[in-house]
Structure formats: structure tokens, C-alpha cells
């Protein structure tokens, strides 16, 4: 995946070239991740990409610092009964003021090398507040959801 | 790594006032208390490391060309039930803020 950045400072548009399409990303589409992600703490700005080639999946891609891309999917598409609780700390960080109804939930997908088996991390979902354009990965200490929920391929 | 020796009830302060205090010392473990602003999350290391390892594996997902087709084969629910939301909600959560591809330009990629 290559990216041709056109002056990422001061909010000009970046042009991204990926396996699933080309994208022009403006500053209003950037989501700030103040803590990065575990393992990717230096990645503080991401964009969420959709394309027909991804189907119902999306790509969460860092656009500042090290390049990292994650395939993500709404956890309710995998488990319709999916529920998780936001702590007070989560609400404060997300700026959601106790109202979680507009939050965007994304679970990270992994693909096993040899078998091609796909798994979804339901234990540590990413939550984005689209009004504040800020996001975090939740790490509940006592989640009953699996780290690797298998998807069924054909 | 900064190394401190602390007795029971002694503490260290990290950054802008995150405090870690030794509460109780036992034979095989010690009890720590952490005082931090509400917005600062505190996790057991092993949980953080578990998520970190999983993220690192996930970030490599598109590095080989056939991965995209493997991904498309996965069965996931097309329509989200509008009555459910991961946290209590009455209205569905739209995928706000997501970016669609631009039309292809004349360049070959």
C-alpha cells in the first residue's frame, strides 16, 4: 500500500493509493486517536476508508507517523447481540458526555496466514465519536467476548 | 526503566500527577493503588500486551495480494438491526466520517 502525501501539515488533502481504490482525504475526515492503538502508539491520526472492493468491511488507516492499516467491521454484523459497556473514563476520553447513541463501533479483523481463516477482535473494539472525530481502542478488563471470534468463509 | 524502592504506603508520581502507591505487601504479590485523572486509562500489562500482539497481527493483513479476496468470502450480516446498538441506543449508528474512493484518474497505478 503506497501513499503519496501532499503536505500533511496544516490540513491539506492527502492522496492515498490502496489495493481497493484511490482516496482523497481532507482534514475533516481525519479521526484523532490521542493514545494511538496498542502496538501503534505513534499513530495518532486515522481515516476510515470504504469501497465496493471491501464490501461491508472498512479500512482504518493511519495517515501520520508510521503507516498502519486495519480491516474493521461493525461488531454487530458479526454478533447481532453485541453489547459492551463504556466506563466513565471512556466517556470522558471520547467526549460523549454519557450519550453513546452516535458512537461508531469497529472491530479489528485478522486473517490467519495458512488457513485464510478470518477472526474479529470483539474483546477490544475501537470506538469513534464522529462528532468530536476522536477514537480509542477499548480494553475492558473483564470482557467475556473473545479476542478472536471466527468468521465463516464459504 | 526507572527503578524505585518503595515501602508500604509510599508512592511514585508519573507525568502530570498519576500516582502509584504501594498499599499492601504480601509474600508473593503486592497491592498497588493508582490515582489518575478519569480520562487516563490504566490497564494490567498482560491485557495491553494481548491487544498489542493482536493489533500487530491484524496490521499485516493486506500485505499479500490475495488477502482482499479471502476477506470478501467472509459471511457477515448485511443489514444491521436498527433496534440494537452496542451501548443503549434507540437509533442506529450510521458509518459517519467514512471516506469513499475517488473516481480513477488517467494515471496507471
How does the SSE layout of this entry go?
The complex is a heterodimer of chains A (154) and B (109).
Chain A: E1 2-4, E2 14-18, E3 21-25, E4 31-32, E5 45-49, E6 58-62, E7 69-73, H1 75-78, H2 88-94, E8 104-111, E9 118-120, E10 126-129, E11 134-137, E12 149-150
Antiparallel strand pairs in A: 1-2, 2-3, 4-5, 5-6, 6-7, 7-8, 8-9, 8-10, 9-12, 10-11
Chain B: E1 11-14, E2 18-25, E3 30-35, H1 45-59, H2 67-72, E4 98-99
Antiparallel strand pairs in B: 1-2, 2-3
Helical amount among residues of chain B, as a percent range? 10-25%
* Average pLDDT for all residues of chain A: 87
Overall morphology of chain B: elongated
- N- to C-terminal separation of chain B? 46 Å
Query: What oligomeric state do the depicted chains represent?
Result: heterodimer
Keyphrases for this structure?
heterodimer, A: 154 residues, mainly beta, 12 strands, disordered N terminus, B: alpha+beta, three-stranded antiparallel sheet, 19% helix, elongated
Structure write-up:
The complex is a heterodimer of chains A (154) and B (109). The longest helix of chain A is centred in the middle third of the chain and has 7 residues, at 88-94. The relative contact order of chain A is 0.16. In chain A, strand 10 and strand 11 (134-137) form a beta hairpin. By secondary structure, chain A is mostly beta strands. Helices cover 7% and strands 33% of the residues of chain A. Chain A has 2 helices and 12 strands. The model of chain A is unreliable at 1-5 (pLDDT under 50). In chain A, strands 4, 5, 6, 7, 8, 9, 10, 11 and 12 form a 9-stranded antiparallel sheet that branches. Chain B is an alpha+beta fold and 109 residues long. Helix content of chain B is 19%, strand content 18%. Chain B is built from 2 helices and 4 strands. Chain B has helices spanning 45-59, 67-72; strands spanning 11-14, 18-25, 30-35, 98-99. Chain B has a 3-stranded antiparallel sheet with strand order 1-2-3, with no helix packed on it. The longest helix of chain B is centred in the middle third of the chain and has 15 residues, at 45-59. Residues 88-96 and 104-109 of chain B have low confidence and may be disordered. Classes of the chains: A mainly beta (154), B alpha+beta (109). Chains A and B meet through strand 3, strand 5, strand 7, helix 1 and helix 2 of A and helix 1, helix 2 and strand 4 of B. Strand 5 (45-49) of chain A pairs parallel with strand 4 of chain B.
